[in-house]
Structures are given as C-alpha cells and as structure tokens.
TrEMBL record:
It comes from the Bacteria. Residues 27-112 form the Pyridoxamine 5'-phosphate oxidase N-terminal domain. Pfam families: PNPOx_N (PF01243). Keywords: Oxidoreductase. The keyword Oxidoreductase applies. One of its GO terms (molecular function) is oxidoreductase activity, acting on the CH-CH group of donors. This is Pyridoxamine 5'-phosphate oxidase. GO terms for cellular component: cytosol.
Length: 163
C-alpha cells in the first residue's frame, strides 16, 4: 500500500493537482464507498493531509464510515463545479485502515485546531482511517487538449493527451 508521502514522490503531477483542487474547495472532496448491497454511495467529506498521510476522518457512525468498516475500498474525487475543468481535477483509489493511536489523535486534533479553530482536542477518533492509495488519475485542460495523467504502483505516471 502507498501512503500519501510515498504517492507524492511517485506521482508528483497528480499529487499537485489533488492538492491544488483540495485547497481551492476548502478541502471538499467526494468519497465513493460501497453500500452493504454493493451499490455505490457518494458522500461529501473533507479529507486531511497530516504527517505524510491522507486521513479520511469525520463524524463517527455515519453511513460512509460504516461502508468503509465493511469494505475498505474507496474512490476520492476532488470537487469540481467548472464544466471546462480549467483547474483540473483528480481521483484517488485505495483502501483504508483504522489507526487507533492516541498520541497521533492528539497531534492531529492540535494541528486541526491550530489550522481551523475546530476543537476536537482530547477526543478519541473511532474510526480514524488512513488512506492507502492504490491508483490515481488527474485531468488538466490546456488550450485545445486535455491531459489525463494516470498512476499505478510499480509504474511511473503516464500522460495520455486527448485533442
């Protein structure tokens, strides 16, 4: 599995598009999970990058976290409202694993508070999902063409240009 830090080293172009779009939307992304019956679910969420890892955390007991507890596979898509995709967009596929480390939770909560003023200090996060990235893609439109950058473990990023 590939952590966020490893991913940024292996797929810098896609990681840059993801970071740019993630920041531009106030960290809003759309998370795709699988319901118990196997049908897809799309949920808004605000993933965070912290200590070299992508974290899918949020309110416990939500359907998206029950989905991930049952089936750890996900797709995360940066929020896009521009039909011309002028700022690009990115998708990450992967799996999650729950990290129950109270010291990490405390550091995360303190960082969140310093960054946003949202105070979760002193709380235990359950679940607290770290994302392992298994593949990714990004779209960038430039002039009269569109570049689709694709990455999978074991291969470098490759760009497919569409006119």
């Amino acid at each position: 599995m590939t952590s966020w830090q490893e991913f940024t080293d292996l797929a810098p172009r896609i990681a840059a598009v993801f970071r740019r779009r993630h920041a531009a939307t106030g960290n809003l992304c759309f998370l795709a999970t699988l319901r118990a019956d196997g049908s897809p679910r799309i949920s808004p969420m605000e993933p965070r990058l912290f200590e070299g890892q992508l974290w899918l955390s949020g309110m416990p007991g939500t359907t998206k976290f029950r989905d991930l507890g049952r089936d750890p596979r996900f797709c995360l898509h940066t929020a896009t409202v521009d039909t011309h995709v002028a700022d690009g967009d990115a998708k990450l596929w992967g799996t999650v694993h729950d990290v129950q480390d109270l010291d990490l939770h405390a550091r995360y909560a303190e960082d969140l508070y310093q960054e946003s003023g949202f105070d979760l200090r002193g709380q235990v996060f359950s679940p607290f999902y770290a994302a392992d990235i298994t593949s990714a893609s990004a779209v960038e439109v430039d002039g009269g063409h569109m570049d689709v950058t694709v990455w999978q473990p074991g291969s470098p990023e490759r760009v497919v240009r569409k006119h």
